[in-house]
């Protein structure tokens, strides 16, 4: 599965369009790393626990999007976009969406 | 007076002082590492446009993502609070956001270090914690682009 965030797959031609594919996930971190993040908040800087959480959920959302595209028979997703919103304190929703296509 | 009592009486000042010393030290270190890593990637062109003029035929295209969650320290929160009174640029926040954004771009590039070009780079920022009252806010900065390789 080829993913790009431009309108085509460079170097190949789009043969067929399958339409929109979406993958999303909402995740919260367990209390231990919430406490760690609280401590880290004192000195500022990167909160590794949350970076990992969001990276994990982003790959989960991407995988769900890819699974949907595979079901349709696509071999590439073009124009992929990511969007993040915080649902509650410490929980984030990640959406990945794109257009499933077949390239040659 | 025991040590614990001193800490309990002065905790806001301890938080601010730790932000001032540890936060500044961490920021200087982070900027140093950002500059070193930016140099190693400076040969790879990056565009924010969807089209690009290629110097050869494209052999591979791949989506790369990089992200980072950052939070401010209590010293910066104090500075920003003071800045709210007089207005103007909140430099305490802008250095943090600058650091976060550059870090996320570097992480994205590190996912595909052998790319010849990064096309259609997008930056996105979202709030994880609002930072109301006496708490500090934290933000997520992410960055994604299509890495292409030429033959």
Give keywords:
heterodimer; A: 104 residues; alpha+beta; Translation Initiation Factor IF3; four-stranded mixed β-sheet; 5 strands; 37% helix; elongated; B: 151 residues; 3 helices; 48% helix
Q: Could you explain how this protein is built, in words?
A:
The complex is a heterodimer of chains A (104) and B (151). Chain A has 104 residues and is α+β, with helices and mostly antiparallel strands. In chain A, 37% of the residues lie in helices and 43% in strands. Chain A has a single domain, classed as Hypothetical protein apc22750. Chain B (Translation Initiation Factor IF3, 2-Layer Sandwich). A four-stranded mixed sheet of chain A has the order 1-4-5-2. In chain A, a hairpin with a 2-residue loop joins strand 4 (76-88) and strand 5 (91-103). Chain A is elongated, with a radius of gyration of 17 Å. With 151 residues, chain B is α+β, with helices and mostly antiparallel strands. Chain B has a single domain (3-150), classed as Hypothetical protein apc22750. Chain B (Translation Initiation Factor IF3, 2-Layer Sandwich). Chain B has a three-stranded antiparallel sheet. In chain B, a hairpin with an 8-residue loop joins strand 2 (117-129) and strand 3 (138-150). In chain B, helix 1 (3-41) crosses helix 2. The termini of chain B are far apart. The A-B interface holds A 2-7, 9-11, 37, 40-47, 50-51, 54-55, 58, 80-86, 89-90, 92 and B 15, 18-19, 22-23, 26-27, 30, 50-51, 54, 57-63, 65, 67-74, 76, 96, 100, 103, 119-120, 122, 124, 126-129, 135-136, 138, 140, 142, 144-146, 148.
């Amino acid at each position: 599965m080829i993913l790009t965030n431009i309108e085509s797959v460079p170097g190949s031609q789009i043969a067929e369009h399958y339409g929109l594919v979406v993958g999303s996930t909402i995740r919260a971190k367990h209390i231990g790393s919430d406490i760690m993040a609280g401590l880290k908040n004192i000195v500022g800087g990167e909160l590794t626990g949350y970076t990992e959480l969001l990276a994990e959920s982003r790959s989960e959302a991407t995988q769900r999007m890819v699974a949907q595209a595979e079901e349709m028979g696509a071999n590439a997703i073009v124009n992929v976009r990511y969007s993040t919103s915080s649902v509650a304190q410490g929980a984030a929703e990640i959406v990945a969406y794109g257009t499933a296509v077949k390239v040659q | 007076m025991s040590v614990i009592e001193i800490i309990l009486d002065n905790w806001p000042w301890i938080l601010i002082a730790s932000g001032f010393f540890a936060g500044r030290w961490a920021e200087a270190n982070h900027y140093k590492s950002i500059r070193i890593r930016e140099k190693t990637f400076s040969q790879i062109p990056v565009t924010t446009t969807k089209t690009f003029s290629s110097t050869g035929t494209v052999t591979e295209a791949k989506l790369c993502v990089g992200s980072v969650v950052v939070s401010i320290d209590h010293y910066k929160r104090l500075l920003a609070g003071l800045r709210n009174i007089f207005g103007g640029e909140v430099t305490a926040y802008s250095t943090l956001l600058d650091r976060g954004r550059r870090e996320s771009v570097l992480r994205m590039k590190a996912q595909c270090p052998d790319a010849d070009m990064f096309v259609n780079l997008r930056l996105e920022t979202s709030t994880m914690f609002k930072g109301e009252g006496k708490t500090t806010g934290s933000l997520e900065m992410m960055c994604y682009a299509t890495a292409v390789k030429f033959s």
